[in-house]
Specification:
With 378 residues, the protein is α/β, with parallel strands linked by helices. The protein has two domains: 4-157, no CATH class; 247-366, no CATH class. The protein contains 13 helices and eleven strands.
Length: 378
């Protein structure tokens, strides 16, 4: 393979930065000595600045490209950022750049090492992907220090999509799964879409956040919303529902509760609030923060097992179950039965994940589960 390469390109100037916007194929990337990825030395020596390659992340991309290529809808529109301390030959009449890889290379990968690794791995499995084109920005006449600075700028000023927005998009895709032709998407996203947990969890969150009788009215900051009364963001609330309400040991995870799940949880939270939140200062209660949400969502598996046996999900019944549990707590756990314990700045505020789970388990053990019968009540 020749080391000479000519590509159409457009000159872009940004202050002192000079770069060429062009495209390359995976075949170009695989030319001997075309690129290098300078890893950061743990001791801080040397010119390297790249983090360690996440093999799992690169494999996810490779799998997506292989799947998408069979349907001719794989795409990767985000530009790679390559850099060299040399200049490139430019032909203004043809708007192209030319260079000899042996003389100019290897190019440093300033941004996009996982994309490069994924592309190369995919092409190794399916040679048809050697002709897959990728947009590339090539910075020229850029020394090692400047390249390191540009890496820092790119990776500290750009944000990945907010997880709350991601949850909303996945939920919408779930609703469209049987209605629209779906392009090839990464397998991990498709699994989330097909599982449907984001869609079901968002139904619950939206109900709790908008129903006039809900104790969570306007307290969940939904994606792209900046409500002043919110106490927890959608991302954390949805994560808690998926992890604890939809867990295999929670009766509420059963599809038979799809219709009434939101109302049941609203009653559950009404009972919690009536028992543990001071009406004079509800905003200062940690009950409405992540610690409170996680703790009582963990406990809900035990509570709703009892309620399901009795077929009774009324607020007063839930208060009875919770009160029984609080009454059976002992030692240092007794405090959590008091509204003062849940005030901001108190014990509840300082709990870590392990502490939340420990208290939730203590509460679950303290609840006396009994069998009962009767019609379902809401």
């Amino acid at each position: 393979m020749s080391s000479l390469l000519t590509r159409p390109a457009a000159l872009v100037r940004q202050g002192k930065l000079k770069l060429y916007a062009t495209s390359l194929t995976v075949r170009d990337l695989k030319r001997p000595g075309f690129y290098q990825i300078n890893k950061l030395d743990p001791e801080g020596a040397g010119p390297g600045f790249q983090r360690l390659l996440n093999q799992g992340r690169a494999k996810k991309l490779a799998d997506y490209l292989l799947d998408g290529h069979t349907e001719a809808d794989a795409f990767l529109p985000t530009s790679l950022f390559l850099a060299t301390n040399k200049d490139l030959d430019v032909n203004a009449s043809t708007n192209s750049i030319s260079f000899d890889v042996k003389e100019v290379g290897p190019f440093n990968v300033v941004d996009g090492q996982h994309r490069v690794a994924g592309l190369v791995a995919a092409a190794d499995k399916n040679p048809d992907l050697l002709d897959f084109e990728i947009p590339v920005n090539i910075a020229v006449c850029l020394n090692d220090i400047s390249q390191m600075c540009h890496f820092l700028i790119v990776n500290t000023t750009q944000r990945s999509v907010d997880q709350a927005v991601e949850q909303q998009i996945i939920a919408r895709l779930t609703g469209m799964l049987q209605l629209e032709h779906m392009p090839t998407i990464p397998r991990w996203i498709r699994r989330q879409v097909e599982k449907g947990e984001d869609a079901r969890a968002l139904l619950v969150a939206n109900y709790l956040n908008t129903d006039p009788g809900s104790p969570w009215l306007n307290k969940i900051r939904m994606a792209n919303d900046d409500g002043p009364d919110a106490t927890i963001n959608q991302k954390s609330f949805i994560k808690s529902i998926k992890k604890y309400i939809f867990s295999a040991n929670n009766p509420l995870a059963d599809a038979s509760f799809d219709v009434n799940r939101s109302k049941m949880l609203s009653n559950y939270w009404k009972a919690i609030v009536e028992l543990l939140v001071d009406p004079a200062s509800p905003k200062s209660s940690v009950i409405f923060k992540t610690n409170g949400v996680d703790l009582f969502h963990i406990c809900s598996a035990t509570v709703f097992l009892y309620l399901a046996n009795r077929r009774d999900f009324k607020t007063d019944t839930i208060k009875e179950v919770l009160s029984r549990g609080f009454g059976n707590l002992s030692g240092e756990n007794i405090g959590m039965s008091s509204p003062e314990w849940w005030q901001r700045g108190g014990v509840a505020s300082g709990l870590n994940t392990a502490g939340v789970r420990k208290l939730a388990n203590a509460m679950s053990l303290a609840i006396n589960v009994q069998d009962g019968a009767g019609e379902i009540a809401l």
